[in-house]
């Protein structure tokens, strides 16, 4: 571990870039050898100017870097470079392969069978429900769910994968020690325990806008296919799908209403050749896999529950509307709605709204 920590030291040197670090690692194989090299040996590497070589040979670890390394140790972060046998195989052929990965949790060999589920940060209730269903079905089929830990669809996909007992990988647009958005810190902890958090950015890096296109290429590269659930015309989801096509990964898109702004991007993806998806069967077929046998027992619904379920639709409906439509008093209606929620048929939203799952 100590040897790999030197990669953080190298990143902390002013003027060090991914390209230059990759060249140094290719030339010297190990971080220690880079620091032990003579200035003339360093400048022989393409991109290493005399000023940078001097900074490397005279480097002294700062208190700030020491503190960040201490944080990485506390979090149990693993640092690997592209020469490491543990470096994910499906990243090795990237034209702009990251020289270093910071991993919290574990990337297993089975995670090569992964599918990305991505979408807008401001999804509709329909989009949330579809993302949750697809992610849950994917993990039940033995696949890992990859996403970007963003608000909205990404969060739904990660949570649904964990709830279904599966594995999920979150690719960050920040340093491994900077969780964004901050409200997903608890979710990030769970992902680290049942999957992995992955970042190519040095510790302490904030969630800068320029980081996310780079993050997007890793999301698609770590996946065998990409599913776009909802996306506007300028959504970063389109960037991920563009990377996926370049990496020869199949792209799937959930169709949406033509007058819905957050479906304009996904509908356009379908126009441009993305495969329309209605369930994971299309994804499994493209990967040469078959769907697992359905083992769930049918849910028993009482007549009163059925009456309520017929009124609850795909769009949120308020308790007052349900009361008027069914003619039931609110206490009885709330009891039936709770029973339907326990059976996984209805979900309560803030403000006493209800929607089908």
Question: What would you note in describing this structure?
Answer:
Belongs to the DprA/Smf family. This is DNA-protecting protein DprA. The chain has 357 residues and is an alpha/beta fold. The protein folds into three domains: 1-61, DNA polymerase, domain 1 (Orthogonal Bundle); 109-286, 3-Layer(aba) Sandwich (Rossmann fold), CATH 3.40.50.450; 303-356, Arc Repressor Mutant, subunit A, CATH 1.10.10. The protein has 16 helices and twelve strands. It has helices at residues 2-11, 18-28, 31-36, 39-43, 50-57, 63-75, 125-140, 153-163, 185-193, 211-221, 236-246, 264-271, 280-286, 303-311, 319-326, 330-342, and strands at 78-81, 100-105, 114-118, 144-147, 168-171, 195-199, 225-228, 251-253, 275-276, 317-318, 346-349, 353-356. The strands form two sheets. A nine-stranded mixed beta sheet has the order 1-2-6-5-4-3-7-8-9, with helices on both faces. The protein has a three-stranded antiparallel beta sheet with strand order 10-12-11. β7 (225-228), α11 (236-246) and β8 form a beta-alpha-beta unit. The mean pLDDT is 93.
